[in-house]
Amino acid sequence: MTELDREQLTDLLAQQWEIMGALVKDLDEAAWRRPSPLPGWTLFDVVAHVIGTESWLLGETPPQHDPLRPKTDVRTLPHVRNEVAVLNEIWVDRLRPLSGKRLLGLFDEVTERRRAALVALDDEAWAAPTVSPVGQVPYSRFMRVRLFDCWMHELDIADGIGRVVNEGGPRAELAFEELTMSIGRAVVKGAKAADGSRITFDLTGPVTRQLNVAVDGGRGSVVETHSGEPTVVVTLDSGLFARLRGGRTTVADHPGEITFSGDQALGDKLIRHLAFTI
């Protein structure tokens, strides 16, 4: 895992929030309510979710429910599958009555307070064990997850409004560490790759890398290189890989954008079982 100090990670988070805000600043009210790639969420909801999470990290609770609005039992929604999702959905639901313009103002205000809060943290707080979507981890580790989450939501917003954004650079490189960390589980538990399988994901950019996974003893592990020829090489661009891993799209929506060398049947199973959720 790439080593980052507090200042570097804080700067990357601040950049990420600024870029997200810039993406939506010119949207009219109708555009705010367009569907995003995430089931059940509009572009407005994506931004509301980020506000909710960062507000929660500031120690705040969701706004009170407006008694004039029908109350939604968020636990019954098909895309709500765990307690983290329940909290996310409550924040989103409570913010929905706002206009897009007011939501953007709140986003700017909350993320600026979060940036200031991160700057003010000392080394002890940065290293303190913290409950997060990936378990109890140092606060610094949680902030890496926050960068990943916000980076993915930048793609959600861009895709929702049909805008091309820069999907490379330092923020993307760090996000890909989250995307690749548990790839062995997807290979074994999802695609059922057999022991002895040697798999290479060849990502052609803008995040360029070869991701090698070896399956032994019922476990898939990321390795630096394979000692022999891979069982299958799966070639695709990093943007599509990220969206498949994040459950934002399906293989059927991207004919001709993925190629295989070697065991094509295994390759096909691999790309159909990439999705994971933090």
From TrEMBL:
Residues 13-158 form the Mycothiol-dependent maleylpyruvate isomerase metal-binding domain. One of its GO terms (molecular function) is metal ion binding. Residues 173-267 form the MDMPI C-terminal domain. It comes from Nocardia camponoti. Pfam families: MDMPI_C (PF07398), MDMPI_N (PF11716). This is Maleylpyruvate isomerase family mycothiol-dependent enzyme. Transmembrane segments: none annotated. InterPro entries: DinB/YfiT-like, Maleyloyr_isom, MDMPI_C-term_domain, MDMPI_metal-binding, SCP2_sterol-bd_dom_sf.
